[in-house]
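Hi Y.,

Following your request, here is the sequence exactly as I used it, all 201 residues.
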Amino acid sequence: MIGSLRGRIASKTPPQLVIDVGGVGYEVEAPMSTFFHLPAVGQEVGLLTHLVVREDAHILYGFATPDERRLFRNLLKVSGVGPKIALALLSGISVEGFIQCVNAQDAAALTRVPGIGRKTAERLLVEMRDRLQNSDGGGGVSTLAAVLPVNASPESEAFSALVALGYRPAEATRLLKAVGPGTHSTEELIRRALQGAAREQ
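Below is the corresponding structure, written out as tokens. Let me know if you'd prefer a different format.
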């Protein structure tokens, strides 16, 4: 198991990044909560990781904090919740927000996250209640990385990241248009779009 990585950021394509560790590039998928705080390309970064092994792929997920990784791992233990749903959840709600939802048994708040239906939300509330009582919680965010052109604009990168997080293309376009004019980084566009989506609920 690969527990952590420390190296230079070779590229960032939300929600995926490549970390160069001694000349080896590790592809890592990270939740938006982690992505927003990454340093610039070329700078050094340290991330906690979780390796998911499937028949067709080994996928490495990266997290900025122990709480994020802990929550991600607990979510994977819930029936019907895989890495993609877990990372979408952690991209759409903070660790603290998730714990509050579980404590308040607020299924409606969880269903606002793309890909989380009513039945999944209710299952999460039931199964995570006991887990959180025996753990500090933690989370993570990411999804399957979108393929982007090398010189993609912040707008197209943000669009691809939102689609990867579960938003329909038309919905992603609408959320980004609602951000309004201005020069924004990819991370800022994604943050404002997610904030806008949360306000609509």
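The domain at 154-200 is CATH 1.10.8.10 (Helicase, Ruva Protein; domain 3).

Thanks again,
Q.
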